[in-house]
């Protein structure tokens, strides 16, 4: 009977330790996911900005060519 009580106490202590480890691992995982999402969000924003700037440059070139009414020379051979 005395041995059974000790074993139950040890089991309860082990479960408590495992629950703490599980909670700590879950918290670390959550922090890592948050960090990754923050980095990905920044990269996504930079990519969108780069795309916007590239489109803007292309539109400016197209407008410039339309206004000058000259086609660009692709080859100097002709």
UniProtKB/TrEMBL annotation:
This is Os03g0211500 protein. Residues 8-73 form the Remorin C-terminal domain. It comes from the Eukaryota. Belongs to the remorin family. Pfam families: Remorin_C (PF03763). It comes from Oryza sativa subsp. japonica (Rice).
